[in-house]
């Protein structure tokens, strides 16, 4: 079969690889009909190379038709249309029974001391072949796959694999008071949907921040107020101006460590000067501080006693954190990968009607044949041609 493989930094190629087959009684084989490229794939494309092996099959946002099942997958039969959650969970262990599916004890990669295995995501997370391929082997298929209606375009349901539950959890963790204010940093797919979900779930003011025209425009056409980082020099000041001088009740960071284009803000410099010299120097000389700029902005823009919800992925142990400010402002910080199956039952009913309350019909900007994945990755990373969400079609 054809699959999108990682070969090196910024080098992704479509290759012929062996067809997957049933290896465990709890496996299923899904013929992929749509599979999206995610902001998280850009971390593999760029900074997480050391954890990848040339030939790894990428992709963790896939849906399709069940073709085969092992004999311990009672709820699926060939022909079922399913979406596959990006994290692989057993549904029964200590963590799964608390709906912390990203921490599943049964699928963790041995010896890595990390959470549950993920499709198409480094050896830290099990090196499981991903879904940007014609066929996908789905482990733990007695639990993971979400059956969806047979009719309706793939994009209606595809984002149950990651983007929708991630945005939903970001809003849940943000704990926005009824009628309260919520700032969303980053208007990629996660930020777009988090902003819409926050409003759908009762936030009074939702303010999105980005620096790319078409991303700001997409948020605006869904009724979200925006700040353009290219012209607003200090997001914290702008947010306080709109919130009686206090800051937002909740801030969602949907940027993560690929933060770019953002100059090291004055607040970062101020925070770094609070550190002892040796640490401040380290802070400025490691790439860390620049990559953390969205997180610093979040901590600055939230009000005292407010909540910061991180869905952007951060890596690295050496990144300095403004602990003094976090503590002084009594900020609540929640984060982590989305526990996909914890939210899908809440979200699915919002996807099946004609009214499309979350506007999922307006997210995909490009449909590309799987064969052209290499160029599609380049386009998505550079945000060329208005790319916001790219769906590959095998
Ligand atoms: N927690 C999870 O389970 C989970 C799941 C999926 C994605 N993610 C992470 O969420 C983040 C967003 O994903 P995405 O697919 O929307 O990615 P994306 O790269 O498309 O979006 C990021 C957006 O942030 C903007 N941006 C960059 N620097 C900024 C700054 N300093 N301030 C404000 N905006 C800035 C970019 O212009 C872009 O629009 C990524 O880090 C991704 O890895 C987490
Ligand atoms: Zn994803
Ligand atoms: Zn489990």
UniProtKB/TrEMBL annotation:
Zinc among keywords: yes
Molecular function via GO: oxidoreductase activity; zinc ion binding
CDD domains, A to Z: FDH_like_1 (cd08283)
Domain Alcohol dehydrogenase-like N-terminal: 25-145
Domain Alcohol dehydrogenase-like C-terminal: 189-260
Pfam family, one: ADH_N
Top-level division of the source organism's lineage: Bacteria
Keyword set, alphabetical order: Metal-binding, Oxidoreductase, Zinc
Cofactor(s) it depends on: Zn(2+)
Cleaved signal peptide residues: none
PANTHER family: DEHYDROGENASE, ZINC-CONTAINING, PUTATIVE (AFU_ORTHOLOGUE AFUA_2G02810)-RELATED, ZINC-TYPE ALCOHOL DEHYDROGENASE-LIKE
Family: Belongs to the zinc-containing alcohol dehydrogenase family.
UniProt name for this protein: Threonine dehydrogenase-like Zn-dependent dehydrogenase
